[in-house]
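Field log, afternoon session.

UNIT: design team B
ACTIVITY: writing a sequence onto a fixed backbone
BACKBONE:
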C-alpha cells in the first residue's frame, strides 16, 4: 500500500467517526461532492428559557467555537433556526448553514475547543468542551496535496511520451525544453500543472462582464457591468451601466414591479429561512451587526424578523428587536404579537413632524381614523378630540384639566358657553376632619337682603338664564366669588357655597317669625279679654235701660282703660 493509499484509508475511517457524515440533511451538505469529507457535525441539546422552562417554538440559535472555556472571541459561528420538540430537545447539523461547513483549520492545531450555544434574546449557555470526534475533520487535509484537490494535477508522463504531450495544451510558443523543465525529467517527474491555450475571442464592450454566445469564439455583453473610471470605479450594475453604489440593480418596468432580489432556502420546512446581514465594522468571524431574517411557518408563508447585535463586543449575539408575523401583526420586543402592534418590555414614543423640540411643536396619534386624535403640544399639554372638536378633554402641563379649553386655570374647568353639564351627583370635600376655626355665619339675613336674583341673556350665544351678578355678590360675600388674575374682574360664583348663607339667613328669619308669633298671641289674648268685658257692660246696660246713654258708655269705657 502506497503512502497516498494509506492516507486515503485513514481519511475514510475518520469520516465514519464524524457525526455529520452519517446523515447530511442540510442544504449546504448537498453541495459537497461524494468524494469530499463533509465538514459537518451532528449536535443534540435542549433549549430552555430564562426560567429554565423548555422552549418549544422555532428559535434562532447561534453556535460558536471558542479556544477558551470562558471569554475570548469566537473562532467561528453560525446561526440556525431550530425547531425543538415539546421537551425542548433538538438536533442540528453544525456547519450546515455555511457553504464550506465547519472550518477544518479550527481543529488543525489539535488544541481543545469549546462550543457555545445562545438562543436569540438570551445569554449564552455555559460552553461545552468538544470531544475528539470533531477533530477528525483535520483528516480532510489528507485528501489534498499542498492544499489543492487532486483534480488540479495530472499523471506523470510515461518514459516514451514527449513533455509537450504530457503538459497538455501548452502555449504555442513554448519549447519542448520549457515543458520538460515544467514537468521535471521524463523519468522522475510525478506531477505537472496544465497549461491552457490563450483563446482569441473578439467582441464585447469595455466594462461589461463577458457572455459566451452561440457564435464560435465570439463574446457578447452580459447584463452585469463594472465601472472602471471616476469616483464610481469598481461599482457594479445589473441592468445599468451607470451604477451609483457598490452594487445597483435596475429594471425599466413602468407601472410594474422593478428589480427583485430573491433569496431562497431550497431545504424548506418550518423554521427554514434566509437573511440579509449588515456589518458596518466587524472583525473576524463574529455574528453580523444587524440582520433581517425570514422564518418559514411551514404553511407557505414566513415571518420577517429584524435583529441587531448587543453592543459592547464583536462576540455578542444578535437579538430580535422587531417581528412582522406571517398573519400581519407587528411585535416590538415581542416574538409572538397578539395585536396589530404589540410592544413588549418598553415604551412607544410619537414625536411628530418637528421632533417635538420647540415650544408649541405638535405630535399627533390618530386612533381609528384622522377624525379621532390624541395630540400633545410642547410646553402646553395633551388633549383628546374628535371630528374637529379639539380638545374635548385637555390636561395642561401643570396638571389642570379642561373641557373644551386648552388653557384651564383651575384644577377642573369647563369652557364658557359650551353648554350645561350633567351628572348623577357632585360631592365637595367637607368633613370636619379637614376643618378648623369653625364659626356660624352672623347677619346672614341682612346679607341676603343685599343680594338680588336676576334674569339675563348671555352676550355670546344669547342663552337666557337666571342667576346673580358675581361683582354684586363679591361685595357682600367675597368668599364665594372667583376673581381674574387682575383682582378686579369677577370670573364666577360658587352657587353651591351660597347655600350656607341661605341656611343661616333662613334660620335668622325663622327666629324673627317665631318672636313675632309670640307677640301676636299676647295681643290676641288682650283683645279677647277686652271683647269679653265690652260684652258684659253692654248686657248690664240693657238690663238698666241705659244702653243708649252716651255718658254711661264713656264712663264704662274709661274704667277699663
Amino acid at each position: 500500500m502506497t503512502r497516498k493509499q494509506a492516507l486515503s484509508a485513514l481519511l475514510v475511517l475518520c469520516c465514519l467517526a464524524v457525526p455529520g457524515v452519517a446523515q447530511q440533511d442540510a442544504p449546504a451538505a448537498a453541495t459537497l461532492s461524494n468524494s469530499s469529507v463533509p465538514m459537518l457535525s451532528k449536535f443534540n441539546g435542549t433549549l430552555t428559557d430564562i426560567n429554565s422552562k423548555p422552549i418549544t417554538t422555532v428559535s434562532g440559535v447561534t453556535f460558536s467555537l471558542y479556544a477558551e472555556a470562558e471569554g475570548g472571541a469566537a473562532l467561528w459561528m453560525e446561526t440556525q433556526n431550530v425547531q425543538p420538540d415539546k421537551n425542548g430537545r433538538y438536533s442540528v447539523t453544525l456547519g450546515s448553514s455555511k457553504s464550506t461547513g465547519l472550518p477544518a483549520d479550527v481543529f488543525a492545531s489539535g488544541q481543545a475547543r469549546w462550543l457555545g450555544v445562545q438562543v436569540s434574546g438570551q445569554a449564552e449557555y455555559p460552553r461545552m468542551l468538544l470531544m475528539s470526534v470533531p477533530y477528525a475533520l483535520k483528516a480532510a487535509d489528507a485528501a489534498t496535496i499542498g492544499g489543492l484537490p487532486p483534480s488540479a494535477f495530472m499523471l506523470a508522463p510515461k518514459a516514451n511520451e514527449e513533455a509537450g504531450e504530457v503538459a497538455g495544451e501548452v502555449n504555442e510558443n513554448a519549447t519542448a525544453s520549457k515543458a520538460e523543465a515544467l514537468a521535471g525529467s521524463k523519468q522522475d517527474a510525478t506531477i505537472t500543472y496544465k497549461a491552457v491555450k490563450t483563446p482569441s475571442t473578439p467582441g464585447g464592450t469595455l466594462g461589461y462582464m463577458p457572455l459566451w454566445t452561440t457564435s464560435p469564439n465570439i463574446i457578447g455583453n452580459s447584463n452585469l457591468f463594472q465601472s472602471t473610471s471616476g469616483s464610481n470605479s469598481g461599482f457594479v450594475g445589473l441592468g445599468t451601466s451607470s451604477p451609483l453604489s457598490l452594487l445597483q440593480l435596475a429594471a425599466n418596468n413602468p407601472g410594474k414591479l422593478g428589480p427583485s432580489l430573491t433569496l431562497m432556502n431550497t431545504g424548506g420546512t418550518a423554521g427554514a429561512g434566509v437573511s440579509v446581514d449588515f456589518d458596518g465594522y466587524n472583525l473576524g468571524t463574529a455574528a453580523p451587526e444587524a440582520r433581517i431574517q425570514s422564518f418559514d411557518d411551514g404553511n407557505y408563508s414566513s415571518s420577517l424578523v429584524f435583529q441587531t447585535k448587543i453592543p459592547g463586543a464583536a462576540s455578542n449575539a444578535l437579538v430580535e428587536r422587531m417581528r412582522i408575523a406571517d398573519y400581519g401583526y407587528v411585535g416590538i420586543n415581542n416574538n409572538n404579537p397578539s395585536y396589530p402592534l404589540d410592544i413588549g418590555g418598553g415604551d412607544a414614543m410619537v414625536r411628530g413632524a418637528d421632533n417635538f423640540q420647540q415650544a408649541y411643536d405638535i405630535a399627533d396619534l390618530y386612533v381609528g381614523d384622522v377624525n379621532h386624535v390624541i395630540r400633545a403640544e410642547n410646553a402646553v399639554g395633551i388633549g383628546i378630540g374628535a371630528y374637529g372638536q379639539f380638545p374635548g378633554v385637555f390636561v395642561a402641563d401643570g396638571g389642570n384639566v379642561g373641557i373644551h379649553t386648552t388653557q384651564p386655570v383651575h384644577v377642573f374647568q369647563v369652557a364658557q358657553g359650551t353648554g350645561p353639564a350633567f351628572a348623577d351627583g357632585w360631592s365637595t370635600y367637607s368633613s370636619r376632619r379637614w376643618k378648623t376655626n369653625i364659626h356660624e355665619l352672623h347677619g346672614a339675613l341682612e346679607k341676603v337682603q343685599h343680594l338680588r336674583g336676576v334674569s339675563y341673556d348671555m352676550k355670546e350665544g344669547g342663552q337666557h338664564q337666571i342667576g346673580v351678578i358675581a361683582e354684586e355678590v363679591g361685595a357682600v360675600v367675597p368668599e364665594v366669588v372667583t376673581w381674574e388674575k387682575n383682582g378686579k374682574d369677577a370670573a364666577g360664583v360658587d352657587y353651591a357655597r351660597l347655600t350656607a348663607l341661605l341656611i343661616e339667613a333662613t334660620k335668622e328669619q325663622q327666629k324673627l317669625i317665631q318672636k313675632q308669633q309670640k307677640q301676636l298671641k299676647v295681643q290676641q289674648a288682650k283683645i279677647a279679654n277686652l271683647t269679653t268685658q265690652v260684652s258684659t257692660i253692654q248686657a248690664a246696660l240693657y238690663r238698666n235701660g241705659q244702653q243708649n246713654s252716651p255718658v254711661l258708655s264713656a264712663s264704662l269705657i274709661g274704667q277699663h282703660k
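LOG NOTE: The first strand starts at residue 41 and ends at 46.
NEXT ACTIVITY: expression trials, pending approval
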